[in-house]
Specification:
This protein is α+β, with helices and mostly antiparallel strands and about 150 residues long. It is built from five helices and six strands; from the N terminus they run H-H-E-E-E-H-E-H-E-E-H.
């Protein structure tokens, strides 16, 4: 992800999330020493993105989304596969994320990648929606399992 991608990234972010990240959030990820934000392209256009951070042996997906018009084409799976490989490359042994308990397609994708529920934040999101905390242990033989 580079600054020139941000107009498309922000359009996707706002289409996907009621409480969207701002340009400032994404600029901070682009400039972060620990952050590795990436975009996925489809037909030469930004189709989705993922913001990964790694600290010591732990990695976290901070934000991930796919353009609603392009969902169901495997773009989210490609982004998650990249995150798993990149987290291992940077020395992480666990990958974490949180997801709205109501985001059933996202939860199904994460479970397909071997994420398991590790916690719950009650009423964390707008309108009292819970946040599920999910973890994936990263061992090299698991990274290519999907």
């Amino acid at each position: 992800m580079i600054e020139a991608d941000l107009a498309a990234v922000l359009r996707i972010e706002q289409a996907c999330f009621p409480r969207a990240w701002t340009r400032k959030h994404f600029l901070a990820e682009i400039g972060s020493e620990r952050g590795t934000p990436v975009v996925a392209e489809f037909d030469g256009q930004v189709a989705g993105y993922l913001c990964l951070t790694v600290l010591l042996d732990e990695a976290e997906v901070l934000d991930v989304a796919v353009d609603p018009a392009l969902q169901g084409r495997g773009i989210g799976a490609q982004l998650m596969q990249w995150a798993c490989v990149e987290a291992v490359r940077q020395g992480a042994i666990v990958l974490r994320l949180e997801v709205r308990a109501t985001s059933l397609p996202a939860i199904a994708l994460y479970e397909r990648f071997g994420f398991v529920r590790s916690g719950l934040r009650k009423a964390y999101y707008e309108q009292g929606v819970d946040a599920l905390l999910l973890d994936k242990n990263l061992v090299e033989e698991d990274v290519d399992a999907v």
